[in-house]
Amino acid sequence: MKYFLSLCTTGVIMGVIYALMALGLTLIFSILRVINFAHGEFYMLGGYASYFILSTFTGLHPLLAVPLAGLIAALIGLAFEIAFLRPMHQGRIERPDEYAILITFGLSFFLMNLALAVFGPYPHRPPSFFQGAVRLGFVNVSADRLTASILSLALLTLLLLIINKTWIGIALQAVSQNKDAAAVVGINPLRMNTLAFGLGVGLAATAGALLAPSFLIVPDVGAVPSIRSYVIIVLGGMGSIQGSILGGLLIGLVESLGAGYFPDPSRALNYKTAFGLVIFALVLLFRPRGFFGRKEV
Amino acid sequence: MTTYAKSTGRRFWFRPQWAAALVALVIALLVPLYLQIHSPYWLHVLIVAYFYAILASSWSLLAGYAGQFSFGHMAFMAIGAYTTGLIGRLVRLTTAPTGMCAEIPLPGRDLWLVFINTVGDNCLELGKVNMPAGTLIYRPPILSGIILGALIAGLAGLAIGALVLRFKAAYLALFTIAFSEILRTLIRGEPQITRGDHGLRVAPLFPQTISRVPDYYTMLAILVASLLFMYWLASSRVGLFLRAIREDEEAAAARGVDVVRYKVLTFVITSMLAGLAGAFFAHYITILSPNIIVLPQMGLVIAMAIIGGVESLAAAAIGGMIIQISLELLREFEAWRLVIFGALLILTLRFARNGLLAPLLQRLSGTVPRAESREEASQAELGEEVGA
Are residues B221 and B273 in the same domain? Predict the structure, then answer.
């Protein structure tokens, strides 16, 4: 029982961070109807940005680098959206669905190789937020991971407030529900697209910067987190905000419990990501629209 | 529709593009005579270039004809490669039973199919005491491994295709990206079976000679055969259905095309071609590591197909060769080479959807570009002015 509860604790701690990253993907999908295949590379970018900031300004507290890293990635995202995704929404691109898949994958290929060329294949690690570990019930959690989780939770709450209470959030919801009707009442859907993309990739980069001290950063560090996010949004339902939060927590729990009870502990970590693929297949078999998805699969 | 009617016209062999292909083939057949003496290394570069040409063109059959995007093409390639590699490592044919290993007698012959265990002592070595003197132990023929590799890649394609291709195109992309990353983790995570990052040694296809010429001709033959097969498929009824599905899936379904079935069929075929290329490539490079499935490798194949021209099998294949050869020529730029091709991939997608080579090939062969692509080009120009 103690073991079970301690696994649940670590699962929830990671799940909150997973939810943050998946929420970025969901935000982009619900507004732009585009799956961002470069999401993992923005996570990677966040890690490198915080490393770069902290090694340039050595006096800075590591926590301050996190919002800066998110901001840098968001700006890159905004520029990419305006240059390459906006033409699609203006009807200037043939077969927009195919284009969206390929152009974001192309961006992922470009960014991953750019990171390799600039930073090299060797792992980098920005300094810790706080040293040591904290005792939570039955389990010791590293202070870094706990900080990342608490900040993710705060950011999730803030985002939910923005989406539900502010003008901008309601405008985003309107565009997600019906683009034309939103335009009629004076919301510029193109501007909302850009905003949502910048915000979405900013969240991925924030998650990357938050987890960078716990896991090392290498150019392909984004692959596993992005795949996890894909599983989460399929499980939660494409475009559903509550779905991606619930999905994130569930995947956190499944990974933690699955690895904890795996018959051969030495190989458990390798199979952690494989659980995601099994869940993906099960969702497609039994409930293709996930928990809260709309019916149009 | 006119282009379809034209390409299957009666004077098949007199069309300029076929004449050009024939000239290219003759050059490809003669090149080793020179390179073998002057630069064997470039023979290797060409073999790798043909390998990528098979991957890029089979990927473009799925993407450009059926409108489905698989990010797992390299994973199917790896399934083919690892299948034949593992058969070579773990399967033997013996003339007497070992009594120690898992084994199946082959019907009609005095042969046993023996599976070597991966945990503990080697059961074949232990079993040798049980076997009468003069017992022969063979490795299974390499060809059987290559064929099985292609078949198993096709089976994996069937399973994934049947599961995922009922849904929108994005689901195949999502699922295959997850599949390929997890396959890599599993290969790396089971070193007792796959040797993981240490690398799996694979027997060379032509052990008698150190010359690369036989490998060159084999890879060339596989490339030509798969291109001919794909061209035949694309000009058959199946190809017509695929284009209909790509243009408008619902309209095609309404006209009686079994949409899912043809998508799955194409996916299985392209997975098998990738598996076949991978299985042969394994016997050429003779060592396999899980890093052959990393996403940048997949991105490279996609860049080849898109920059070449995803709607033309030949353009994608030539794109594959040109990019592979340029990577070799631009060696001094190291990691920046792939950054350049990444940028080129994005720009090609945005400003030249038909690729850079496909329109060139069309002009050379005298086929008039389709009206809609011209319209698209003028729209792209217009877009630049407005967007700026």
Answer: yes
